[in-house]
TrEMBL record:
GO terms for biological process: regulation of transcription by RNA polymerase II. One of its GO terms (cellular component) is nucleus. It comes from the Eukaryota. It is found in: Nucleus. This is MADS-box domain-containing protein. One of its GO terms (molecular function) is protein dimerization activity. Residues 1-55 form the MADS-box domain. InterPro entries: MADS-box/MEF2_TF (IPR050142), TF_MADSbox (IPR002100), TF_MADSbox_sf (IPR036879). Keywords: DNA-binding, Nucleus, Transcription, Transcription regulation.
Length: 59
């Protein structure tokens, strides 16, 4: 079962690690599958983290 981390320091550390892994997976998915992808994450303090990819337009 997943539960909230009560200790604020541990919660922030976990958030940072998980956010980094999520951004990496988003980047990998965009590259491997040639997908247009957008990811928006807000921290508990309201800080915005984002990732966006797009394929070049080929005429």
């Amino acid at each position: 079962m997943i539960e909230r981390i009560d200790n604020a320091t541990n919660r922030q550390l976990t958030f940072s690690k998980q956010r980094g892994g999520l951004m990496k997976k988003a980047w990998e998915l965009a590259i491997l599958c040639e997908a247009d992808l957008a990811l928006i994450v807000f921290s508990s303090t309201g800080r915005l983290y984002d990732f966006a990819s797009s394929r070049p337009v080929v005429n």
